[in-house]
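Notes from hallway chat w/ T.B., transcribed later so I don't forget. T.B. wanted the structure written out for a chain they're using in a teaching module, and asked if we could keep both sequence and structure tokens in one place. Agreed to drop them here.
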Amino acid sequence: MAWTKETYLQRTREWMDAVGSDRWSDAFLYALLDKAYRDETQGILNASPYFKFAQRTVTTDSNGQFSFSGLSSGSGDNQQNVYRIITVTDGQNTLYRETEFRNVPLAVSGTTDYLGFDRQYYLIGDNVQILPQTSGLSLQVSINYIGTPIDELSPLGTADFPPGHENLLALSAAANALAIGGSEFKQTQELSSLAQQFRTALYEDVARRTSNPMTLTFPDRAAVWGG
């Protein structure tokens, strides 16, 4: 069963051996849990970019742009906070290729005709610029995302995290809370080492969710083996 916000706090205090202690406030520990949640989820999405996947339909403004943060959706315990863009298409046959502003600085100046070039986009600030610069263009954007931060969950809300791996967040938060030197330094090292073991197990789980990468197959198509 997925852990609630209150369970995360309780488990963190247990790992710290600080149940009932008023040395660390709930707000402080929730802030550390939120950092652990964001850091570990980013690690998951780097290991498996499609683990949390969604598609958004956007329309470009008068400058041929749409908002990056506008790709987030949901509220309360059901947030989907955009992490990275995976693809941008017109939803049919056109794929937009990512570039950088420095590669196409004249593309929106009106001095260069980019209509003959392939479709491109780049990020600038919180906006995504579409090339050729086109207003009112409907696009389909594929993204991955991070769920609701733990400190923003309702008391009985559950974090969007791989089931069975919740202790990693409590361990990470506990290690950070105890990282103040002195008598707790050894405990911090032990918790950090244990968290790394849990992290390795998590990445092995999420990075490969099909058997295909581990299966040696011999397809029956002549084109594949040169027959």
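Follow-up for T.B.: Residues 53-146 form one domain. Might be a good example for the class.
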